Amino acid sequence: DAGVIQSPRHEVTEMGQEVTLRCKPISGHNSLFWYRQTMMRGLELLIYFNNNVPIDDSGMPEDRFSAKMPNASFSTLKIQPSEPRDSAVYFCASSFKGMGSPLHFGNGTRLTVT
Amino acid sequence: KNEVEQSPQNLTAQEGEFITINCSYSVGISALHWLQQHPGGGIVSLFMLSSGKKKHGRLIATINIQEKHSSLHITASHPRDSAVYICAVRSSETSGSRLTFGEGTQLTVNP
User: CA of B91: which chain A residue's CA is closest?
Assistant: First the structure.
């Protein structure tokens, strides 16, 4: 298996632009998680899905952030409009049966908003 | 006070040394994870445990539920073990799958 695949690996954009991050979970996994990592706050859960349904989005910072999972093999995290404080590494992770199983992380997307 | 605290924050060792990283938490948990993040940024799940002890190669993870404490041990450390090690817990006191993360321990193993 190729593991969790995230794209792009790096994204540099200007303040105000829309940013879309993509994730392909491991085939067969039914839970998908979006995390954000910054130096100040470490790793934070933004949102997670079970069976393509958003279960907990309380970590989403504000309305500028949205996430979708249209099918079991694809998810997006969108920021519109982006701000410099959104600069971080965004990780997608997947697992089988929610948090009762080990997490498998993607390589992350490093976002820089100037 | 953070719900999950790790010690030490930074650790430097010589190749071959036995290493221990500690994690203490203040909530009831249903699971504890140890993660490894390499300098390139990728995160790997090392262990998930809710009781007792697990071993994988040179890595050993233990947990004491009563004391709310877990340790990650590395035997015969090697420079390639240099990474940030992160402890994360899933609280049993709240519903859902939210993990609370420690701040990580930066390990450097010198040849």
Answer: A99
Which of B35, B37, B51, B97 to mutate to test binding with chain A, by most A CBs within 10 Å of its CB? B97
A92 close to A23: Cβ distance less than 8 angstroms: yes
Cβ of B45 within 8 Å of Cβ of A103? The answer is yes
Are A17 and A81 in contact by the 8 Å Cβ rule? The answer is yes
Integer Cα distance of A65 and A77 in angstroms? 7
**pLDDT tens by residue, A10-61:** 999 999 999 999 999 999 999 999 999 998 888 999 999 999 999 888 889 8
A18-46 exposure pattern, b = at least 16 Cβ within 10 A, e = fewer: ebebbbbbbeebbbbbbbbbeeeebbbbb
User: Considering only alpha carbons, which residue of chain A is nearest residue B102?
Assistant: A42
* Segments of chain B with pLDDT less than 70: 1, 94-97
Question: Long-range pairs for A46-49 at CB < 8 Å and ≥24 separation?
Answer: A46/A77, A46/A90, A47/A77, A48/B96, A48/B97, A48/B98, A49/A75
Mean pLDDT value of segment A69-75: 96
Q: Tell me if A33 sits within 8 A of A94, measured CB to CB.
A: yes
Secondary structure element (H or E) that encloses residue A24, with its range: strand A19-24
Could you tell me if A22 lies within 8 Å of chain B, comparing CB atoms? Answer: no
